[in-house]
Here is the input.
Amino acid sequence: MVDPAVIERMARLRGIGDAYHDYRGELRFFATQTKQALLRAMGCEVDDPAAAASELSRLEVTRWRNFLPPLATSHGARIGIDINVTAREFGAALVWSVRFEDGSYREGVTSTADCREIWRGEVEGSWITRRHLELPFDMPPGYHELEAKIAGGAPDRCSLIVSPAQCYAPAAIQAGARLWGIAVQLYTLRSRDNWGMGDFGDLTLLIRWAASHGAGFIGLNPLHALAPADPERSSPYSASSRHFLNVLYIAVPLVPEFQECTAACARLAESEIVRRLFDLRARELVDYRGVADLKIEILALLYGDFCARHLAFETERGCAFRKFVADGGELLQMHARFDALDRYFRATLGTASGWLSWPQEYRDMNGEAAAKFAADKRTEVEFYAYLQWLAHAQLRDAQALTRELGMPIGLYGDYAVGANPAGSETWSDRDGYCMAAEIGAPPDPLALKGQGWGIPPQDPLLMQTQRLQGFVRLIRNNMRYYGALRLDHVMSLFRLWWVAAGLSPTDGAYVHYPLEQLLTVLALESARAACLVVGEDLGVVPDEMRRAMPEYGLYHYKVLLFEKLEGRFRRPAEYARHALATATTHDMPTLRSYWEGRDIELRRRLNLYPSAEVEGDVIREREHDRELLLGTLASEGLKPAQPAGPHEAFTADLAYALHLYLARSATALVALQIEDLLGETLPVNVPGTDREYPNWQRKVSADLEDMAARADLAAHLQDIRRARAG
Here is the structure.
């Protein structure tokens, strides 16, 4: 049996916490068995005493005996590095040089004795002192490298990441403006021209309408790449890859090849296709399979035309595609290869989507089988790169349109907390994800057994060893076309609830991440992309995260229905300035559903309440909250004539009053959910369900063209505009 003390020491070195406060406020310690299971999921040797002792020794030597850490960060001009010095090296000359991102150098010499001591102790029989080397000059923001050595010894290297003091904020907000925007799940949009789900063409219509009424941004669900081979796997929060885009959002008629391609035009003129298009648009729910089948068929024809007209003759457009592919590098090549392989195995073997279902020899992205497939099926692989090119171009053009129309932020994107275990992102980075665990949440009143989200966690130690380069690429790729980015479950920058495979979420534990280092990367990339950052900080927020968000300039995420203070709803003037406020979210009922209790009825039908007592508590709290809401609106002179009491039916006037209440808030940003503007009842997602409810499929009830023509909505938005300006 492995000594529990060895497991405990190893767990601390791998970032596994000791305890947490549950939803009752009680301190709960994690069991040694839980820590052992998570260490096993991390790839540590924990089942044999000798192997475990060797693993612990390796971890301690890595932490305390390496001269330099792999990475040091600072969100200011000065940076310091913690170095490990042996007894023999104490007092020796320390020779260092810094190579800046622009290629210039700075160098110097100091004594290890002059570096401030942080810790001293014995490691593996050797006396070690950890000391702090402060570089004696200001550093520009950027990615730099330190090389240092004890005089006469071998050099060691450390990446230095320096960011501005805070994340980017637009000039309008810095000048005191209070912006507002419309938040949508893009796939839910209807229009007279889309192919059965909202697309980038609909996004341009929405931008023009919202901008004409003074909106500063359009909020979007995650647009991450999903699985074209299995379009019914539709959750935007379970991405195949967060580096790339969902190609089903391509507006086919906006593709330049569309007007040139006679084969595509002829196919679309066929009566069968006309009927399919009509049916796809008319459906109440998105038929992802139908949309994908039609779009992929026509896009394949457009790709063939593109190859014949542009790639074959190296036209300007053909060269632009080649540049996109070259700039995308191996990451794009692997993603396109993944989508081609996934489609191939779905078609030939009938496998489930994702690399976990492929034949074993194809599960290694660098293996001979995958490479041979890419060589033999070059055209099929290139087709998926072409689709990414089209999607990126249309999203880029949408953001350019927001700038042209004067929106201070433009597109406000969403970054999911993780990726699907069988998707392109994990296939391309097998070592970076712990596939023997999933992330989730500890027990709470509505989920007494905790939650498992089916998303593999990233290994924090490996992230640091790799100098956060994977995180840098993810953030950079997600900020590319956005003026603001929402980080789903921002607490993941500090800790995540890990659950080892085969265990219940109640047997999980928190694993900690390098918060300050991740925030430094975030601030640097935010400044370079001119992209404001909103952290979704709902639920239990650790004190470390509460302090870090304002320090690094992240904006809070405030939901009106959760914002209570001393038994009442928070007044507009009491909202934090550096925040985005909204009435509801994609995981909540719409305002109409909330007021009428339809969400409670739905959760009852789906058997989602852990007990009748919990359901009763929710009902009583809802009745009380309706009274509070009406009283709150009355205190601001906004109480509508109807409903006059908490038991009367919901009205458009109530939604209007709540939106005006939000618009008066002190927050820099306010987002109006399009569902609440239209009085929708059905939610887009019911947490805790999979097949029980059609999540991520519900469309809005009106076409964009009809919305833009409605005088009541125009008047509503103009009042919001005046309230935000006043």
